[in-house]
Design a protein that fits this description.
Blueprint: H1 6-9, H2 12-44, H3 47-83, H4 87-114, H5 116-122, H6 130-142, H7 144-159, H8 163-187, H9 191-216, H10 232-266, H11 269-306, H12 309-336, H13 338-345, H14 349-362, H15 366-381, H16 385-411, H17 413-444
Helix pairs in contact: 2-3, 2-8, 2-11, 3-4, 3-6, 3-7, 3-10, 3-11, 4-7, 5-6, 6-9, 7-8, 7-9, 8-9, 10-11, 10-16, 11-12, 11-14, 11-15, 12-15, 13-14, 14-17, 15-16, 15-17, 16-17
Family: Belongs to the multi antimicrobial extrusion (MATE) (TC 2.A.66.1) family. MepA subfamily.
Protein name: Multidrug export protein MepA
GO molecular function: antiporter activity; xenobiotic transmembrane transporter activity
């Protein structure tokens, strides 16, 4: 069966498993690399290294946001066009996505490097942390073109019906990173710069892998020079759908900065190191859900474009069930092994005590986050950008930022940790309301 046609004909549960499993494996390995990377930094550089990476993290989030603006937006539009049997148009979208990636990469890199120190100081880097944060960020930003291709265009690999290839891209990058990180930090004594260099080299290899696939591989879509010229309609359609994950990343960056400032005010650098660990563990626990979400996107997009609404609803319900199961398991792991997890990163007794309590509170609403992620992704997959933006932004801008500003004034440091679970529950409730209304409309169709 043709790869793209199977999206509209194969059994939903089998299809979702076949598309999600490679994405889950790839995402979990990638998140596992981030955890291992932090462990190497924590052990090889110390608490100051963990703090520096946490300070620089908002820049990395924005960098990834631009990659998602193009990659996720283009992938969703490609799925819809292939469902409508418009393959030539889908290839134009791929070519435009490549051009946009290169333009955004150049603009972002130049802007950040020009004002690097002021940006890091604004993000909360104090004099002892600034040299570490500067060295790490400069290397990461210079290597951003590789990330835009390897991460951004890899979404289109999955959208055209080849989840195994998309998984291979992620595994190559993450696996190489896990090997190079300890080599550069402990063997070559390159410190925090070695960690950044390992990341850039790994992303470079995955970028070459994706380009070769679209140029000479067995891809359904081909990267052709004639499609590099930007088309206003295509760019607008990419940005409309990609704006949701992009704004979510921007909001996440703002939230991280706010968290860092608030933690420095109410506790100190150990609290900033703690939130860095918590963020990585939270992402590790959520990566299976993001994998399911990525596997679901081409199935939903293709069948919605083809008018197969019963298949859309069935895929959505199965995905929500699987996501809830994974997020609940992640919750149990965090609550039971909290101290042991923090000890992996650093053996400072104060950090272990502070970080373990913070992690239990901060991630206590994990079981409902799976539903929220899948629900918001549904609207993105069917091209309803407005709904997707509202739901994606609800947790960060509408809920979390006001809570981080308010709760610490009432509860001190405890209020910082409580802000996230309250925002998680509220955004899941809002997603449920939107999704219930949408499913009623689909039933009428």
């Amino acid at each position: 069966m043709d790869r793209s046609h199977s999206l509209g004909e194969e059994k939903i549960s089998t299809l979702l498993w076949r598309f999600s499993l490679p994405a889950i494996i790839g995402m979990v390995v990638n998140a596992f690399y981030n955890v291992i990377d932090s462990i190497f930094v924590g052990r090889g550089v110390g608490e100051i290294g963990l703090t520096a990476v946490t300070i620089a993290f908002p820049i990395m989030i924005v960098l990834m946001g631009f990659g998602m603006l193009v990659g996720v937006g283009a992938a969703a539009v490609v799925s819809l066009r292939m469902g409508e049997k418009q393959q030539e148009q889908a290839e134009k979208i791929l070519g435009n996505a490549f051009t946009l990636s290169m333009l955004l990469s150049a603009a972002f890199t130049g802007s950040v490097l020009l004002f690097l120190d002021p940006i890091l100081i604004m993000l909360g880097a104090e004099q002892d942390v600034l040299p570490y944060a500067r060295e790490f960020t400069r290397i990461i930003v210079l290597g951003s073109p590789f990330m835009y291709i390897g991460f951004g265009l890899n979404n289109i690999v999955r959208a055209e019906g080849n989840p195994q290839m998309a998984m291979s891209t992620t595994l190559i990058s993450a696996g190489l990173n896990i090997v190079l990180n300890p080599l550069f930090i402990f063997t070559f004594h390159l410190g925090i710069g070695g960690s950044a260099l390992a990341t850039v080299i790994s992303q470079g290899v995955s970028a070459i892998w994706v380009l070769v696939y679209f140029l000479r591989g067995k891809s359904v879509l081909r990267l052709r020079k004639k499609n590099f010229s930007l088309d206003k309609k295509i760019v607008r359609s990419i940005f409309e759908i990609g704006m949701s994950p992009f704004l979510m990343q921007i909001a996440s960056s703002l939230t991280t900065v706010l968290f860092n400032y608030t933690l420095l005010r109410y506790s100190g650098e150990l609290a900033v190191a703690s939130i860095g660990i918590i963020n990585r563990m939270g992402m590790l626990m959520l990566m299976p859900i993001f994998g399911i979400s990525q596997g679901l996107q081409p199935i939903i997009g293709y069948n919605y474009g083809a008018g197969n609404y019963d298949r859309v609803k069935k895929a959505l319900k199965i995905a929500i069930g699987a996501a809830t199961l994974f997020s609940t398991v992640g919750f149990l792991v965090i609550q039971i092994f909290d101290k042991q997890i923090i000890m992996l990163f650093n053996d400072n007794p104060e950090l272990i005590l502070l970080g373990s309590e913070a992690m239990r509170i901060n991630l206590c609403m994990l079981p409902v986050i799976g539903f929220q992620i899948i629900g918001a992704n549904y609207f993105q997959a069917v091209g309803k950008a407005g709904y997707a933006i509202v739901l994606s932004m609800s947790r960060q801008l509408l809920l979390l930022i006001p809570l981080v500003l308010l709760l610490p004034r009432l509860l001190g440091l405890q209020g910082v940790w409580l802000a996230s679970p309250i925002a998680d529950f509220s955004s899941a409730l809002l997603t449920g309301i939107f999704l219930f209304r949408e499913l009623r409309k689909l039933s009428q169709k």
